[in-house]
Design a protein that fits this description.
Layout: H1 3-12, E1 16-19, H2 26-36, E2 41-45, H3 56-61, E3 69-72, H4 87-95, E4 98-102, H5 104-110, E5 117-122, H6 126-132, E6 139-143
Parallel strand pairs: 1-2, 1-4, 2-3, 4-5
Antiparallel strand pairs: 5-6
Length: 144
């Protein structure tokens, strides 16, 4: 549980990149972003619908464009794979001094990346749970 560290990182961040995950969760993401109240947030979604992943249209419908700028990552993988994303997304990723990454798919794509990343996810398999030092099914806030 790195929630206190995350609170401190948000307070210090100049530019926050929030990586969305499931379409059904983005209403809660909006509430979290409104609670955080950070003035410079980009909310990134998949470039195309994959499984149940959020798209730009979903994010707009959920009201994410109130507390954040919405951006497609330009890729249709079920996670964030930096080698496959758009140049615009990569530029924002590189500029952000804090990344909040939702979901196990994003964790799997970014867990070895050298960046100030906080992962919010449920450990859905034994391998990821073991890597994070938790039990399968646990909800986690972990810092990269």
């Amino acid at each position: 549980d790195a929630s206190e560290s995350l609170r401190e990182a948000v307070a210090r961040a100049r530019m926050l990149l929030y990586l969305g995950d499931n379409a059904g969760e983005i209403v809660m993401d909006r509430i979290l972003l409104e609670t955080i109240g950070h003035p410079n947030v980009t909310f990134a979604v998949r470039g195309a619908p994959v499984i149940n992943d959020a798209t730009v249209e979903d994010a707009r419908a959920a009201g994410i464009d109130g507390p954040a700028r919405i951006l497609s990552n330009g890729d249709d993988a079920p996670g964030t794979i930096l080698e496959a994303v758009s140049r615009e997304f990569r530029d924002i990723f590189d500029q952000a001094d804090l990344v909040i990454s939702k979901g196990q798919g994003n964790y799997e794509g970014l867990c070895g990346v050298e960046k100030n990343i906080y992962f919010l996810l449920m450990a859905k398999c034994d391998h990821v749970a073991a890597r994070l030092g938790v039990r399968r099914g646990d909800f986690v806030i972990a810092q990269a």
